[in-house]
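fold-stage: in
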Amino acid sequence: MMALSRADTSTLGRWWWSVDRWTLAALMTLVGFGYLMVLAAAPAVAERIGASSRNLFFAKQVMFLAMATTVMAGVSLLSPKGVKRLALLGFLGALVLTIATLLIGAEVKGARRWLNLPLIGSLQPSEFLKPCFAVVAAWLIAEAKAAGRRAWVPWVIVIGLYGFVAVLLQRQPDIGMLLVITSVFLAQVFVAGINMAVVTALGGVGVAGLFGAYFVFAHFRDRMNRFLYPEHGNNYQVDVALEAFGAGGIMGVGPGEGRMKTVLPDAHADFVFAVVGEEFGLLVCLLILLLFAFVVVRGLMRLLAETDLYVILAASGLLTQFGLQAFINMASSLHLIPTKGMTLPFVSYGGSSVIAIALGMGFLLALTRKRMSRAEEGPL
């Protein structure tokens, strides 16, 4: 790719000279960490649970990350209009499949979030709702801002869609996913310049919803109580994770030399950051943190020169989702917030999660590409 000339007018040539290569490099570095960390943590987990092969999770994640990289690259070729169309189709498909989880989904730990599909295996449709809803909501809010007297029509639609998604996630239940989608929606409403009183009111509804969830959902109440009163609950995973960070120190104990992953149930997924801390130390943890921060800040900087409100809102929502998910995972591992089963983007093990994140980052790369004229957007 480095040999491509600026005069190259092929699809690949135009993509290479218009895509944000710094963001792409940061994302691919995170994918590289994903390969490294699943190699470090997954065999121990597979051995502990008696999987058919010690390398089962590693082999699967190699395939998932390869698929994710392909999805991200392919989607980044789209024009903003193409992103809008794909997101709308993806949102409708994910919505139907999320409804299906409530009817025929596999129940795990009291929640129905997964479908067991032929050939595909386990699928969590709500993961795909996050990036697709961010784009669809951005499109509708932008339409509302440009609609004049009939602005209420797209507002009714987008608020109705958000409410429907919120009800579905509440029924699963998946409060963490609902929190992320709500935060993304509120961020987009704020960026759109909506009256602060409206934003505050919506935020108040969200806070009230969290209080309601505390009293309605036993598992949510249990996690909050274990965080607020650790001496009265079982905080085994968090305690082991903190021990892992302490054992790793500044430089870590060395790749493959960690011991906590052999007793940490979700070492390859929700608590992979603790494995990073033990084996690679504080410096590599900070590097990963900086990579996530770089993607978010770089993306926001690219939007400063953007004039299309739809692009601004969609990219802002995707960046909010990406940064917030990374923060929730790392902060949970460090016991800074209540534990939440949310993966670290591209680093944690997971099929639905990593491919959905790749879809969202493909959307972001497509939206933040340099576009000199409408003609350069192409038919997609």
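fold-stage: in (second)
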Amino acid sequence: MPPYQPWPQPPYFAPVPPPAQPPVNGLAIAALVLGILCFLPAVGLVLGLVALAQIKKRGERGKGMAVAGTAMSGLGVVLLVLSLVTGAVSDFADGFRDAARESSENGGTFSLDKGRCFDSLGDSLEGTAYDVDEVPCSGGHDGEVFATFRMTGGTYPGDSRITEVADEKCYALQDSYVMDTWAMPDDVDVYYFTPTRESWGIGDREITCFFGSTDEGGTLKGSLRRDETTLDDDQIAYLKAANVLNAAYASAPEEEYVDDDLPGHKRWAGRVSSALADEARGLRSHDWPATADKQVAALLRDIEAARKHWALAARATDADTFYVHYVAGDKLLGHEKAIAVRKALGLETTLSDEAPGGSGTETGAEV
């Protein structure tokens, strides 16, 4: 069976009441409603532009709603009607272009940087969002942004293609934000904000990847960030070495049984053997503190012994021989030595109840 990452229980963070938020601009809401309904588009356009000016002056919320309403109303204004308007046409057009340009520069109707936390204005993290409330990560919140990236192209690629790109890249980028996978709560998953067909038309190309709770009505408490900004050099060195093995374990064949794909499992064993060699080099190349030196040395001995068995599994001529060396190599990579190192380095040491028996230092593979 392919391995999977163990997820420990989240650490406790005392809730911190969020600061009072400024009110949402009423004209921004009206502009969004008119834009969605395609009703009185000229009115929606004017309300959106006025709302943007008021929000900037008063420091109110609702900028994303105002920009979205302005964009949709602007697109709905009939060219014939615009041709009959005098004087104000150029002002409206300039205002619309400015709003669209600002939206594009900010990455979309609203933009959140990596490491920022927010509350959703809706009942869930799924569906269409026009704005969010940015809040401190120290308290409870609905989402935490861990990566952003931009798509390219002039023509809207379609919902399915955008979702495919977001799904692939966001899941790949999460490990660089949470290097310590043991510190990830069980009830957290990856979500993302993507451009809509309408926002794409005004220059929105940004995809925002964020963590959110899978529990209905659930929230996150405290930041999940575990990278160079929050970890020390010793912790980073250990996690970088261990995560090489994680990636190799995660590349197991889709076929669960070795008899069904012996060549595929042998190639997998070869990748694990190479990853163990890389992990050992990474651990040896670092100058460990005295408090962790013995624990790392003990882990290295098991890694070297396990690597030999995985190498033999990679050269096995039949399934029975593969299993003999696979089981021996996997047993040598139990959680105990990794936990000892983690404790010495001040990293998370608790595994979730759903973590499998047997591990590749950080992940498990069940026979």
